[in-house]
Design goal:
Layout: H1 2-6, H2 8-33, H3 40-51, H4 55-85, H5 100-103, H6 105-123, H7 144-152, H8 155-182, H9 191-217
Helix pairs in contact: 2-4, 2-8, 6-8, 8-9
């Protein structure tokens, strides 16, 4: 096992597994966030339910942190190994089949990682934009709905989230395809279909996430 996971193939498998786990969280997180369109009662009740899970919530957070660290570590090690295998770069490159998302995976991944830190400091730890974190609703619960709306009414914050989610969508559009390829699930005849599906899922997630700050900016969600 140690020999396998120490190889390039093993590291790609670990990166794929951690990526799929993070993708599952992204979907669940998105479904929770979209409750903002149902109104403050639904979103605040959902938020209160999550926080009342106590140890289960922290267990999930620690597991997600482990997946993030594993994903970044394997991506970094594989990149360094690839560069070591070719210390002299190509004089010029011709990109025939590689998409823009695949060529910028490392940059989009790093920016998304920085965005996750900012997002946690904003909505979880309230150390960024604390002026929007103290709202309480009529039932004495943390008014997440008002916090989100008040934050995204600031154009700079909303645009930051929209751009970050665009990069997330780009990262997923290629990452989903690569993950299943690394795990050996893709036969040659289904690769074109899965590549198209990965693009649809990746950019569909971007549209869904971006709809929240955009709706606030446009005054649809108040």
């Amino acid at each position: 096992m140690l020999t396998y996971f120490g190889s390039s193939t093993g590291k790609k498998f670990l990166m794929a597994i951690s990526g799929v786990a993070l993708f599952a969280f992204i979907i669940g997180h998105l479904l929770g966030n979209l409750q903002i369109f149902l109104g403050p009662e639904e979103l605040n009740r959902y938020s209160a339910f999550l926080h009342n899970t106590g140890e289960l919530l922290w267990g999930a957070r620690i597991g997600l942190l482990a997946m993030v660290v594993l994903h970044i570590w394997t991506a970094t090690v594989l990149t360094l190994e690839n560069r070591a295998a070719r210390p002299i770069a190509y004089a010029s490159k011709e990109y025939i089949r590689a998409s823009y998302a695949s060529r910028t995976m490392h940059w989009s991944g790093l920016i998304v990682a920085a965005y996750i830190v900012y997002h946690l400091m904003h909505f979880t730890f309230h150390s960024v934009h604390p002026e929007y974190s103290h709202f309480m609703d009529s039932q004495g619960r943390h008014d997440v709905y008002r916090m989100v709306v008040s934050s995204f009414q600031v154009p700079a914050i909303a645009i930051t989230y929209i751009i970050a989610n665009l990069l997330l969508g780009m990262h997923l559009s290629h990452g989903l395809y690569s993950a299943f390829q690394s795990m050996g699930f893709l036969k040659e005849e289904v690769r074109p279909c899965w590549r198209t599906l990965s693009n649809v899922i990746g950019y569909g997630i971007f549209i869904a996430y971006a709809a929240i700050p955009l709706s606030v900016l446009l005054g649809i969600v108040k």
